[in-house]
Amino acid sequence: MSDEMKIITFIVGYLIIGGIGAWLFRYSRGKSRDSNWSTRAACCFLAWPLVTIIGTGYLIVKYSKPVFLCISRKADWIIILASKRELHRDKFGILYTAPSPYGEIKFVKVKDTTGKTYYLTVPRSIDTAREGVAWTYRMNPTDFDPVRA
Amino acid sequence: MANVKQLVQGDILFVRLDIPHYTGKSTEIKRLETNVVAEGEKTGHKHILWGGFLYNSSSWGTCAFVGNEGGTVTHDEHHTLNLSPGEYRIVRQKHYNYEAEYKREVAERVVED
C-alpha cells in the first residue's frame, strides 16, 4: 500500500467509525427526548476515539506508525529540498546535495517527457548528473545515452 | 525507425541486446504470459508492449522480443515508444536508500560496541 493510500485509509476509517459512533449515539438516545442531539452527535463524532475504543486501537496499531512515518518523511523532503545545493548540471538532469537526517545526501532532479519533475537519491560517490541518472538505471555512465519517448 | 541502442519511457529503460538471446528452446529462458512491462506503484499506469513478447532470462532478467515489423510500448501518460526489431533488456529505475544505509551502519556500530 502506498503512503497516500495509508493516509486515505486512515482518514476514511476515522470518518466511517466516527460517523457510525455519531449515528448510534443519536438513535440510541431518541430524537424526541433530546432536542440538542445534533450538537452531541457532532461532539461524539469528533471524540469518537473515546466511544469506539476497539476501532481506535485497531487503527492506531495498524496505521499510526506508517502514517506518522510518511508525514515525517515528507517533512524531511521539504527541508532537504529547501536546503539543496547544486553540484552539477547537464542534459540528463541536475545533481544536488543537501543535509538530511541520514547525513549529507545526493540526489538528481530529472524531468520526463510528460513535464513532471522528480528527484532520485543516488550514492554519495556520484559526481555528475549523467553518472547519477545512469546509476538509477544500473548503467555505466560512459555508455549511457538514451532516447526519451 | 533508427536502430537506437537505449530508449527510455518514464522509469523504464530498454537496452538493445547486441547478441540475440531468445531462442524459444533454451530452458533458462521463459516466455511470459503478459505483455505488461511494468506497472506504476502509485498511479497504476502500465507500460504495455505491442508487436512482441516478454521473456525472462537468467542472465538479463526481463527482456522484450520485438518482431520483424517492429513494436511499440504504450503508456497512459508518456508518448508511445517505437522499438525496432530485436531484443531489449528492460531496466527499471531505482533510487538509493539512505535510510537503509543509515540503519545498516547503526546496526554495525551496535555490533562493534
Features:
heterodimer; A: 149 residues; alpha+beta; four-stranded antiparallel beta sheet; 53% helix; 21% strand; elongated; B: 113 residues; mainly beta; six-stranded antiparallel beta sheet; 1 helix; 13% helix; 42% strand
Compose a concise summary of this entry.
The complex is a heterodimer of chains A (149) and B (113). By secondary structure, chain A is α+β, with helices and mostly antiparallel strands. Chain A has helices at 3-29, 37-46, 48-51, 53-82, 129-136, and strands spanning 85-90, 93-100, 103-111, 117-122, 147-148.
Approximate strand percentage of chain B:
35-45%
Strand ordering within the main sheet of chain A: 1-2-3-4
**Outline type of chain A:** elongated
Largest chain interface and its two residue counts? A-B, 26 and 28 residues
- Termini separation of chain A: 29 Å
User: Which structural class do you get from the secondary structure elements of chain A?
Assistant: alpha+beta
Count of beta strands of chain B: 10
Assign a percent range to the helix content of chain A.
40-55%
Distance between the termini of chain B: 61 Å
Identify the strand order in the major beta sheet of chain B. 1-2-10-7-6-3
Structural class designation of chain B: mainly beta
Low-pLDDT runs of 5+ residues of chain A are none
Rg on CA atoms of chain B, Å: 18 Å
Strand content of chain A: 15-25%
- Strand tally of chain A is 5
What integer value in Å does the Rg of chain A equal? 25 Å
